[in-house]
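User: Here's a structure from my thesis project, written as structure tokens. My advisor, Dr. K., wants to see whether a designed sequence matches the one we expressed. Can you design one independently, without my sequence as a hint?
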């Protein structure tokens, strides 16, 4: 989950939150993802490209790989959609502002595990347009989908729980990198 303002976040809404994160995770390294619905704020191409960019930020520093699934009726490990109000889980969205999205930890990789729901009552933008930067939000929510918790003590990390505005050169912090490498291993060059 990511919040727009300080003081509005609680992370306990995640029903898949394991008691002890690393011991309960199935950390598959080769994951599939699917974009199940889009937002009218951005073109489909911009949404798909931004999600791909966000995936790369995590896969560039770890042994993760992501493959997009577009086949109708086939679910992926990470299912991504834009939602508004009640949408079939216990986390109705809250209108403009406050919570921007929620995601589910990978847990047992069943049901909603790994899925990301973006609040379509927000205005999303890319490249510094008006609204919430969708790249930052996608990288942040992906972090949760992959098993990372919030980093309250690292304001520069992507996993800091509060949106701090558009950052032109968004990068993972060392805290983000350490977290993902702890779960999925460091990126290693392989020679074939
Ligand atoms: Zn969050
Ligand atoms: Ca909201
Ligand atoms: Zn939801």
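Assistant: Designed independently from the structure alone:
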């Amino acid at each position: 989950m990511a919040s727009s303002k300080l003081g509005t976040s609680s992370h306990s809404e995640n029903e898949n939150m394991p008691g002890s994160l690393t011991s309960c995770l199935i950390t598959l390294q080769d994951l599939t993802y699917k974009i199940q619905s889009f937002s009218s704020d951005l073109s489909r191409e911009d949404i798909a490209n931004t999600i791909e960019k966000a995936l790369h930020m995590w896969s560039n520093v770890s042994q993760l790989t992501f493959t997009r699934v577009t086949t109708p009726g086939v679910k992926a490990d990470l299912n991504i959609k834009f939602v508004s109000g009640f949408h079939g889980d216990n986390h109705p969205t809250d209108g403009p502002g406050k919570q921007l999205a929620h995601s589910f930890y990978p847990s047992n990789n069943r049901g909603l595990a790994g899925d990301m729901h973006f609040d379509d009552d927000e205005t999303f933008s890319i490249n510094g347009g008006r609204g919430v930067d969708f790249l930052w939000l996608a990288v942040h929510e992906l972090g949760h989908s992959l098993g990372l918790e919030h980093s309250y003590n690292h304001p520069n990390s992507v996993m800091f729980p509060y949106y701090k505005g558009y950052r032109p050169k968004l990068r993972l912090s060392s805290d983000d990198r350490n977290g993902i490498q702890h779960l999925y291993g460091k990126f290693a060059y392989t020679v074939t």
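When you compare it with your expressed construct, this may help: Strands lie at 2-3, 30-35, 65-68, 78-83, 99-103, 116-119, 124-125, 132-133.
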